[in-house]
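Long-time lurker, first post. I've been practising inverse folding by hand and with some scripts of my own, and I keep getting stuck on stretches where the C-alpha cells seem ambiguous. Below is the full C-alpha cell string for one chain I'm working on. Before anyone asks, I'm not after the true native sequence, just a reasonable design that respects the backbone. If someone could post their per-position residues I'd love to compare against what I wrote down in my notebook.
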C-alpha cells in the first residue's frame, strides 16, 4: 500500500457541525440490514470488531463490560500497514454488529473481509470518513487516531450505533460516551494550552504518524515530506535529505525528535544518534496501544512528554 507524505492538510472548508452529523448517519446506515441479507449472530450479544486495539479500547470504554469487543490488531509488534488477516478475523467480522475502521487506506483489509464474510447488517464506523479531512489530498495523513476532534466524532457515532444495537442499555452507553468525550475535550484543551510554551518549536519526525497532535500543540514540522514518506515506505531517503534533517538536529533548530518506535532502520538510527549527541529529546510514538495502557492515558502521556521536551 502506498504510504502518504508528512503533510497535514487543512480540513475541507465545507465541513460544519451539520455535515458531520449527517456523515455519522450515513456511515451508520451504509451497511444497514435488509430483510433477506446475511448478518451478525442473532444470539442477543452485541459484538464490536475494531481494526486495531486503539479503536477497540475506545469501544470497550463506551460499550462497557456486556458488549463483546474484538481488536484484530492488538499487539505492539504488529504493523497495521503490513498486517496479514486470518480466518479468525473473518469469523469475527461475520458475527459483528458494529465494525470500526480507521479508513483512508490504513486498514482496507477489514472492509474487504467484511464484504467477503457475507455480513450485510454490520454498521461500519469509518474514522477518516467522519474526520472532515480530504483523504484524496496529496500527502494525506491517515493516522487520525492522533486527532482528538475526529475521535470525538467516532465516539458519537459509536454511541449511536450501540444505542441501536441494544436500546435497553442506551442510558449506560450515553453516559460512558459523554464521559469519554469530556476527557477528549480536556486533551484538546491541553493541546491548546501548550501552544504558548511550544511557540513554534521545531520538530523532526521519522513518519507522519503524530502530526495531528504536533500541529495542534504548535510545533513546526521541519521534516522534508519526501524524507518521512521514504521512511514510512520502508525506503532510505536520499543522502541529501538525510543530511538536511541531521542539520536541523545538530544546529539546534529541532527541539525534539519524534519517531515511530514500531519501525526502524539505519536512517532512523542516524537521527536518534544525532539527537543524543546534540542533547535533543526523543519521543517514541506507536500505531497500536502500548502494553497495559488505555487510549486516553496513552495520549495524555504523549502530551506530557511533548510539554517537557518543549519547555525552556
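-- Answer (accepted) --
I ran through it position by position. Result:
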Amino acid at each position: 500500500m502506498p504510504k502518504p507524505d508528512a503533510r497535514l492538510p487543512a480540513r475541507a472548508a465545507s465541513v460544519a457541525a451539520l455535515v458531520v452529523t449527517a456523515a455519522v448517519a450515513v456511515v451508520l446506515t451504509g451497511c444497514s440490514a435488509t430483510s433477506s441479507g446475511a448478518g451478525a449472530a442473532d444470539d442477543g450479544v452485541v459484538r464490536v470488531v475494531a481494526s486495531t486495539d486503539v479503536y477497540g479500547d475506545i469501544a470497550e470504554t463506551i460499550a462497557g463490560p456486556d458488549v463483546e469487543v474484538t481488536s484484530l490488531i492488538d499487539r505492539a509488534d504488529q504493523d497495521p500497514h503490513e498486517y496479514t488477516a486470518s480466518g479468525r478475523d473473518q469469523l469475527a467480522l461475520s458475527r459483528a454488529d458494529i465494525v470500526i475502521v480507521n479508513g483512508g487506506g490504513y486498514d482496507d483489509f477489514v472492509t474487504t473481509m467484511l464484504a467477503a464474510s457475507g455480513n450485510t447488517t454490520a454498521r461500519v464506523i469509518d474514522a477518516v470518513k467522519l474526520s472532515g479531512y480530504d483523504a484524496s489530498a496529496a500527502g494525506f495523513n491517515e493516522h487520525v487516531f492522533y486527532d482528538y476532534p475526529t475521535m470525538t466524532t467516532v465516539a458519537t457515532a459509536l454511541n449511536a450505533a450501540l444505542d441501536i444495537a441494544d436500546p435497553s442499555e442506551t442510558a449506560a452507553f450515553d453516559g460512558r460516551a459523554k464521559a469519554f468525550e469530556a476527557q477528549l475535550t480536556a486533551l484538546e484543551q491541553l493541546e491548546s494550552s501548550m501552544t504558548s510554551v511550544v511557540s513554534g518549536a521545531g520538530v523532526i519526525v521519522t513518519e507522519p504518524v503524530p502530526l495531528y497532535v504536533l500541529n495542534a500543540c504548535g510545533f513546526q514540522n521541519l521534516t522534508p515530506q519526501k524524507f518521512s514518506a521514504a521512511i514510512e515506505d520502508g525506503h532510505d531517503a536520499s543522502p541529501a535529505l538525510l543530511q538536511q534533517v541531521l542539520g536541523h538536529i545538530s544546529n539546534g533548530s529541532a527541539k525534539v525528535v519524534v519517531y515511530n518506535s514500531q519501525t526502524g532502520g539505519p536512517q532512523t538510527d542516524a537521527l536518534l544518534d544525532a539527537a543524543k549527541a546534540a542533547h535533543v529529546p526523543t519521543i517514541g510514538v506507536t500505531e497500536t496501544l502500548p502494553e497495559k495502557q488505555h487510549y486516553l492515558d496513552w495520549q495524555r502521556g504523549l502530551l506530557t512528554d511533548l510539554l517537557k521536551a518543549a519547555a525552556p
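A couple of notes from the structure itself: The chain has two domains: 17-190, 194-310. The longest strand covers residues 254-260. Happy to go over any region you disagree with.
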